[in-house]
Amino acid sequence: MARTKEFDPDAALQSALELFWSRGYEATSVADLVEHLGIGRASIYATFGSKHELYLKALDRYAETHDPLLLSELSRPGPALPAVRAVVRRFAAEAAAPGRRLTGCFVTNTAAELGARDTAAARRVEANWDRFETLLHSALLRARGQGELPPGRDPRALARMLLVLLQGVRVVGKASDDPARVRDAAEQALALLD
Question: Which residues bind DNA (predicted)?
Answer without folding.
Answer: 29-48
